[in-house]
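[Automated response] Your request has been received and processed.

Submitted sequence:
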Amino acid sequence: MSDTLYLVLDQGGQASRALVFNDYGESLAQARVEQKTDIDTTAPDPKLIVDALRRAVTCALQQLSASQRKLPMRAALVSQRSACLCWDRITGQPLTPVISWQDNSGQSIIDQLYHHFKEIQRISGLVPNGHSPASKWSYLLNSNALIEAQRHYQMACGPLASFLIFHLCREHPFLIDRVNASRTMLYSLEARNWSNPLCALFDVPPEYLPDIRPSHYRYGTLEIAGSRIPLKLVCGDQPAALFSNGWPNPSMLSVNMGTGAFVQMPLLVEAQERPRTRLLISPAYSDLNDELLVLEGTINGAATALNLTSLPLGLNYQNSDAWRQRYQPLPLFVNGVGGLGSPDWCPLESGWQGVPPFDAKSKVLAVAESILFLIQRNINAMRDVGSFPGSINLSGGLSQLDWMAQGLANLSGLNVHRMNNPESSARGAAWLLSRSRNWRQSEETVFTPAAASALNARYQSWTQLLHAALIISGARR
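Generated structure:
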């Protein structure tokens, strides 16, 4: 039996979860408390998220046997990277709600900094966009409410993970890891610290920001359910998913399809040698000695877009193949839900092309197909800068739909290895804690490319439709 257990706290857009793994990658306990932070819900009191995580941890620990509870335990925290807020760093009292990563309220700030785009990308590795916490904090700190608050409180601006670290650890540290820090657009990839020029540009005082540490670091001590557990790892949820089966293969592309969809591939260069691209470049993991950079594409409208159609999409979408045979031809959907992400980075109104009226089921299928098209657009952008994946590692709730996994294989021309265990982020965080040689690979299903002339023709038509929409919107290309 493993002599160490690994507790992972996973704060996602739909729920607060806690999972316990052993050195073999086996999940021994897990608990979930519904606590949404998505853009389509009322922003929650940040303390409710802390309480939800505590309840999830308590429930998970209670599931362990008496002998398991005696084993040493280490903890990790993973969360959405661009979710952020402001609070009083002395009392921990929230001064704003949690602002979702999907919130685009900072776009007006980004628009004002157009002439600084090259400088921002050169320093941070990020293409300027309104989803970044820097733009949201800049907007908030210049609002009447927070101008007054800054006179009475010791202001803290941080990613959601930093707020959770402060409240969950008995030492109340004001810290954040490099992975979450890099998503703020105030981080210097080369210096591995806050960038004074970027802080000045966005008018966010550096003293408001948490101290930065590597992903693997002793952040503090969780004191929950009568247990004291060292918090030894903090990371973003999408980067953590890269490590679910160990250190990522440099030739394998990782696609995670959840609330949003994320396309990641290891970038085997130093920060100062990174390519010029409309994709993101950011750290996926760091310790005291090493750092892994990734090239990343983002699709904002994945499950979020499906939830906005007239039929809900469950994870067990059993009738989808039958629907695809019956509801033809499908309309084409320009998916601008949440704003168009990489490589275009602009607000865009969603739209349909086809002969109405559209059946509700055909609309759901067309939205799902648009997610595949946006993923393929990002794969093409990676190839344009010399990253040529040999295969795809697919995870996330939407990946469990066979026809979507097969569609991705057909469209990309690559073998798709779908993880049958959907807990890729939590597994990845547990592996980074353990680095165990006994770690067992997650079972997977492999989808091989098949001839798909109709799908490729629809992708070309959809691309032309997207380009036309970008021109009409006046988006910068």
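Summary generated for your ticket: The chain has two domains: 5-237, 245-422+443-473. The domain at 245-422+443-473 is CATH 3.30.420.40 (Nucleotidyltransferase; domain 5).
If you did not submit this request, please reply to this message.
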